[in-house]
Amino acid sequence: MQESQPYEPPAYPVTFAVDYPDRSLNRLTTFFRLFVAIPILIVLGSVAGGTWQWSYDQGEAAAAGAGGLLFFGPLLLILFRQKYPRWWFDWNLELQRFINRVAIYLALMNDRYPSTDEHQSVHLDYRYPDVPTELNRWLPLVKWLLAIPHYIVLFFLHIGAVIAVIVAWFAVLFTGRYPRGLFDYVEGVIRWQNRVAGYAVTLVTDKYPPFRLAP
Questions:
Q1: How far is CA 34 from the centre of its chain?
Q2: How confident is the model over 188-213, as pLDDT tens digits?
Q3: DSSP-assigned states of every residue in the chain
Q4: By C-alpha distance, which of 18, 64, 47, 69 is closest to 116?
Q5: pLDDT of residue 10
Q6: Taking the model in full, what pTM does it have?
Q7: How far apart are the C-alpha atoms of 98 and 119, rounded to whole Å?
Q8: Could you give the CA distance from residue 51 to residue 16 in angstroms, rounded to a whole number?
């Protein structure tokens, strides 16, 4: 008689994970984390703030969405030409990776200063889509609306994440370690947020994000 295999939820196209720091974290930089992070926050703001405009090789203009991530450009190209320029895709992915490295540092999940290019302990990835076969050209017009249930859930999850980080701050100061349960929760919230961003903002998948913290 064949043993039944445990159920494993299907993998979502946007994957995210953070290496758990199984070591003593720097108490001094943890205590002053908000101040220590100011330089990298200025750098991040210089590339992620405002609205920009680019032109591609055929001379047509495409606007970038607020916050530095390209949104309107890919939306228009998916809608009218069923394509997602690879460099726009790469920009969104690398910028999201950078944003997440800074977020992880602020959440005390790593004491290594965020790099502008190295991935460090943060692993965010999504596959470049074959637009004509994998992306519905009309769906980007309503994804922001379809994602509203996620926005509501994330609002409360983020409140819990802030509380978890405050508790972790005290734990690191007194023990040097980040409690694993709190780490997994904060990682799960950020994973959830990245899935929603991949679906509704960077438009790299039409697969609806799951309501779960786990991978």
A1: 20
A2: 999 999 999 999 999 999 999 999 99
A3: -PPPPPP-PPPPSEEEEE----S---HHHHHTHHHHTHHHHHHHHHHHSS--EEE-TTS-EEEPPTTS---HHHHHHHHHH----HHHHHHHHHHHHHHHHHHHHHTTS--SPPPSS--TTEEEEEPPP-HHHHS-SSGGGTHHHHTHHHHHHHHHHHHHHHHHHHHHHHHHHHHS---HHHHHHHHHHHHHHHHHHHHHTS----SPPPS-S--
A4: 47
A5: 61
A6: 0.86
A7: 8
A8: 26
Point out which residues pair with 14 in neighbouring strands.
126
| Other CB atoms within 10 Å distance of the CB of residue 185 | 19
As given in the structure block, the two tokens for residue 68 are: 């530095």
Tens of pLDDT, residue by residue over 67-86, are: 478 899 999 999 999 999 99
Report residue 41 as tokens.
Answer: 């926050």
Say what the pLDDT of residue 203 is. 96
- Cα–Cα distance measured from residue 95 to residue 93, given in angstroms and rounded to the nearest whole number: 6
**Domains of the chain: which residue ranges?**
14-200
